[in-house]
């Protein structure tokens, strides 16, 4: 078969089918206006629950001023080249020191993007003698990193510690023959379900098994823990986390990411991460903006308090109204409904066109047929009025869904 013919056949078999029925609506929508809970979609005002700007830093005046001043002084080209060659600056190293101090880890290395950086970390740390064991619901970047690694790969059922232990026993037998090591991978917060990784129970296994623990805390950094350090702080297992990954794309409302750990290991990664060695350094304007965001994250705990207040009001209100939110323990708020793909599309259109509510919708083939997830991300920038309006709208569309009002296909 011709390669392009195969591509065309695949297009209609998965998410690509939404390019035919909902490009710029269901997929690749365009939100306009100032960043925040109240924006515009196709020229109409909407209340937005799809931004991961947990602390509201993306629209903060002090943050925007720091971004603007840094961009005016340096532009977006500076520095040119990768960090290893010509792209290193005092600002980059200052941000790394500040992140290390905040996390309580010996060292930090900045990454251009979370996705490419995280998969590259796994590749750099492991070889064909090693074993990688990962939670089956890990993010795509971790899965791709595992696929890239030549190590023996095993998954364990989501947060199933008994299954993980059986995998560790198998891994021990393997490394006794190869002389390799074991890397266990999980997430701090699982971004679709909203539950946390079982970090305390995984960390406890270290007393019996010789493995290193890698945690992707993209949704936990700045949100969980007494000081906002993240999920390891929430569980009190910072010392047990050997490789701590975090991204700026959520709480920091920016691009970029970081990896934290022991000095020798981080120095090794500086010299072995292909995704950083062969890619341009983060623009200095972005780095300066990240330093300002980290400053506010550390000095304004009231932002995190507001986030959790809005989260509790939203989640408790939805539960009281009869909605199922699954197992979420975090601001990630999935609302589970029963319905077909056709009904999901009609429901989303009703929410946006008639109620002015914009949230992400997930249906088959991402999840099983007959199910719909409406995913809400509360932030410190939302208000109680936003919450009350949304719960009322959800009650109305849920009643319409149950009554069969969305059974007929709609045009977008």
General description of the model:
The chain is of the alpha/beta class and 412 residues long. The chain folds into two domains: 11-48 and 301-402, Aspartate Aminotransferase, domain 1 (Alpha-Beta Complex); 61-299, 3-Layer(aba) Sandwich (Aspartate Aminotransferase, domain 2), CATH 3.40.640. Helices cover 42% and strands 16% of the residues. It has a seven-stranded mixed beta sheet with strand order 4-10-9-8-7-5-6, sandwiched between helices. A four-stranded mixed beta sheet has the order 1-2-3-12. It has a three-stranded antiparallel beta sheet with strand order 11-14-13. Strand 13 and strand 14 form a beta hairpin. Helix 4 runs parallel beside helix 12, helix 5 packs parallel to helix 6 (140-148) and helix 13 (301-320) runs parallel beside helix 15 (384-402). The longest helix has 20 residues, at 301-320. The mean pLDDT is 95.
Radius of gyration: 22 Å
Helical fraction equals 40-55%
What would you call the quaternary organization?
single chain
- The number of E-state strands comes to 14
Total separate domains? 2
**CATH homologous superfamily assignment of the largest domain:** Type I PLP-dependent aspartate aminotransferase-like (Major domain)
Please state the structural category: alpha/beta
- Quick one: biggest sheet? 7 strands, mixed
Distance between the termini: 34 Å
**Strand proportion:** 15-25%
Kindly report the spatial arrangement of strands forming the biggest sheet. 4-10-9-8-7-5-6
Shape: globular
At CATH level 2, the architecture of the largest domain is 3-Layer(aba) Sandwich
Using the coordinates shown, work out and report the CATH topology of the largest domain.
Aspartate Aminotransferase, domain 2
